[in-house]
Structures are given as C-alpha cells and as structure tokens.
# Entry
Amino acid sequence: MHNVKRNIQTPQALAEKKQREKSKIDEFLALTDDVLSRKKKQEWSDDAFELTQRLLQINPEFYTVWNYRRNILLSGIFPHSTPEQINNLLSDELSLTTTSLKANPKVYWIWNHRRWCLENVPDGPERNGLPSMEWRQANWDKELFVAERMLDADARNFHAWNYRRYVLANMPTRRPEASELAYTSRKIGANFSNFSAWHQRSKTLVGLWESGQLDPIQSRDDEFELVSNALYTDPDDQSAWIYHRWLIGSGEDKSRLEREIQLIFELLQEQPDRCMESLVHYKRLLLQNHSPDSQTLKQECVELLSQLMDLDPVRYFRYQDLKRDLDQ
Amino acid sequence: MSTSLLVPLHVAYIRALGDSKDDLSYHLSAHLRMNAVYWGLTALLVMGHGDALDRDEMIDFVMSCWNEEAGAFGAHPDHDAHLLSTLSAIQILLMQNAIDRVDVDRITKFILSLQQPSGVFAGDTFGEIDTRFSYCAINALSLLGKLDELDVEKTVAYFRRCRNFDGGFGAVAGAESHAAQVFVCVAALAILDKLDEVDQPTLCWWLSERQLPIGGFNGRPEKLEDVCYSFFVLSALSILGKITWIDSSKLEAFILSAQDTESGGIADRPGDMPDVFHTHFGLAGLSLLGYPALVDIDPVYCMPASIIEGLGLRKGWKALQRRTS
# Structure
C-alpha cells in the first residue's frame, strides 16, 4: 500500500470499524464465492457477466475475475453476437471501465483489460462490401484520448505513458512520429520537470533520426537549445541534466563539448552540485576522447570531485572512486 | 521515531497478518496472498525467526493454490495461475525445504509457454507483458534447475530493447527507467551471466542519484522516497559492485524511521500505514546494509543467501559487511 497515512485509533473506534466492515466482508465473500463457483463450472451466462462487473467494481485488482469476464465474452457472448454487437460490447467495456481507471490509475489489470478490448474489436463496418477499419480506428482513437486525459491528471503515470506508446504503435492508421515530438514539446513546455516527457522525447527522436525523417545534426542543435533553456529556467531539476548528458553522448564532438562546458560553468553559482557533476563528466569525456595527456584537465576533474565530496556527501564514495580512476 | 530495529514487534506483526479476517483490506488483497506469504516468510527469515509461522500450514496453503489445469500456482485457492504467484510459491517451498512438492516439469512448461516472440514474458495466458515477468520466469527456472531450457539470446534481446538513455531499464521496450524495473532487469541479467548488457557507469550514476536528502530512495527522478526502493536500488548497486555509492547510514536511518513503533511493520515512509510488502523490502535493504543480527539476503533472488549458495546459484554481488553492533 502506498501513501496511506497511519491514524491511531482508539479500541472503541476500531471495534466500530470492524462492525461496519463485517457486512461488507460478508457481501464480498459471498459474491466472490458465487462468481468463482460459476467460473469453475465454466458458466458463461449474462448473469455471471453482470456479477463479475459488481465484483470488479468492489475490487478492480481481482485479476482472476477479469480473466473470467473476458472468457465469458469470448465463450458465452461473442459466439452469439454479430460483429457490430461485438464492437458495441467492447466499446461499452472500455467506457464502463474508464470510471474505475480514473479511480485506480495505477492498477495494471485495468490497463491490460483495455488492451485486450482494443485487440478484439472486429473489422467493420462493411463499406462497399468490404470490411473497413472504422470501428477499430474509432476505439483506438478514443483510447489515445483516454491516455492523454490520464496524463493530464498525472504527467508521470508510467502506465498511461506505456499505454500511449502501445496505442500509437498499434492503431490501424498510425499518427506521424513528428506529431509525437510536438506532444512531448507541449508536455515539457507545461512543466520542465516532466522526466517522462523528456524520456519520450528521447525515444521519438531516435526513431525520427533512424528513419531519416529528421537530420540528426540540426535536430541535436535544436535539442541543445531546448534543454539549455530548461537548465537556465530550473537548474534544480534533474530531468534536463540527464537529457543534456544523453545529447552529449560519448562526446566525440569536441567543439560542442567545450561549448556546453562553458554554458554549464556559467550556471555554477546557482546550482553547484548538479553543475559540477556534469562538468566532471564532460571534462572526463574531453580527456578520454580528445586530450588524453592533458594534466590541466585531469587536475580540474580531481578538484571538482574533491568539491563534490564536500557539497554532496551522500555520494562521497562515488566521487572518490572516480577520482581514483583518474589517478590511474 | 525509532533508531533501532524493533525485531520482536515486526515478528508479531507478521504473525498477526493471517488473523486479520475481520479486516476488509485482508480480503481485498486475496489476489496478492501468495506474494504476501513470500514477503512475510522472507522477512521472518531475515530476522532469524523463520519458524514464527507454522510450516505445515504454509505448505498446505501454497499447494492449495496449485492450478492443475495450468500446471502452475495462483495467488489464492481457485485464483488463476500466474507467473507472479508461481515464482512466490517456488520461493516459499524452497525456503520451507519442501520443493519436492512441486511438479517441476509442468511448471517449467507453463513458464516457457509464456515467452513471447519478442523474447519478453507474459504474466499469464492473457498476455500482459513486463520485464518483471521475464525476471519471474528466469528466477523460477533458475531455482528449479531448468535454466538450460531457456533461449537466452532471445530473452536478452528484449532486455536490450528496454535499456534507456539514462542507463536504466523500463517495464517494456520504450518505457521510462524505474528502479523496480532496473532491479528486475539487472537481477535477471545477473542470473543469465549477461551483466555486460548493462551500461554500468551510467546506470550506477542513475541509481546513486535516487538517494534524496532525507536519506531514502525514490524510484525515478523527481518522485517521492519510498522504503521499497531501499531494496530495489540497493540490490542493483550491490549486483553491479557499487553499493558504496550511496550513504548507507542515512538510508538505514530512513528505513528505521518508517517503522510502526506500536503495531510493528514498516511503511513506505514515516507516518504511513505499515504493510508486509514494505516490511519485507525494508528488512531486505537493512540486511544488505549490514545491519547487525540480520541474516544475509541474496540481492539477485531476494531470498536468504545460504539457500541460494546451497543451490550453487550465488553470483558476484557484494553487500556491506554485517556490523556486530
């Protein structure tokens, strides 16, 4: 359990709580018994379907009942349904479970049920005698919308981000990858401290670079501008520092490395330990890739690390290890 | 607030867990029961009180969750078979020295049937994929001595796709790095002797940055501290040989401050309700930190180290030396 405050209860309050809960427990256990015994008998009736809904409303983490519900659809209801009816059932399924999702935004089983629903939407309706993708596109579009609303509520909900990526990758008519870049810009613009959005941006860019849709050189320049804006606006936030480190990569671009070192040096007063940590890393890259014999650079790194051992004592031994590596 | 580990209180807390049948929350967590028993038993063993719960009752419970049709274990009697509960069942039976009760061939078949074309594992036949499930599969096969039936290259290929720009790993390909997923991926790769797939300097940097000024760890940047990350982050660091890269006394103080000094148990953070999940991971973290009088835990399998050594499965991890006081 997470984020549940402890409250000290008097024995009397505890006793009252147990009284109140007793009827709920009895109801829950009776319902569970009913549902699981029908499942054992492989009953696929509408009654059973209705009962699973009641049970899942009380406990959306009851994965066995989600399985049963899906099996009722597959074995009991779908075989007697037209494609149109199946589509309606699955759309209903998605609507019905949205309330549960909003109340339980991090329950794996609900998100998984949505994937299953999407994957079972049939082709249709028929257009000119051929099955179209309209039902599927409509449901997948709606789910993208659901993911976006969930991310508006909690921009760091990784379930919602994973679902978003899943929907974008599998919807019948794909959205252009560049539009995802724009989405991450929006999310980052709304809050620089959204590491999940920066992460998504890193993935989207790699895709665009690899497919040739974006020129990596110009794109990286744009990204350095974006991230330095973030660094200057909020040097306390980790996200931009991690993203910046990724952009630098293995540091083969000497002039870029030197330019960024200078930029960070200017930020030193405001955010000493983050700046210093990055400076050490980048100067080490300079040392390794471009000036392996520079005693000056080596000395600068050693000094920075000594300062970090003071400023950030929590990670003292990491800095000590790095110092020792430099001396070798 | 407490500055020492209240062992008797935690033992009593765990013993009392099975008696909460008049608590609605007990029944609402039936879908986790097998995992909860594993967390409770491991916590007791780490505290040196493995016999505080009745062994026969526990074995009977585990076996009552066997799903004959699937050839694997569910979380509770009549609950569907799942990888999560199957791993916990195997771990419990091993810790209770009752692994002979298990149909190794059938479980192996169940586990291997869940591997997807991409190399990742599903949790059950309904196909939810997650690197957690890959870890469960690899861990379970390893404990059963059936790792040689796994297509290692295929399995590792998926972990590679989950590796991110920050050195960390996510739940699925494309997912953000998260300490719990980092743990499962690193531990799984350790079992497969494929730690060279990890960008160790970058990941160890990312892991060390999880420690907040308060002393506790968060699971990813800009999130709150939580006791369970004490294990996930610490075990990954100990597997990668960098357990010194965090402040151990601050972490220890944080875990101890999250104890419930009245009812026992450990919470996600100070002031919150304890639960067996956080009790287990808090204790596991303390064990890796070398807290006095605790039993050594293996960070790869999250089970007592002696049992893993006995199976010949110990990998090259390094915990902090156990202090005598």
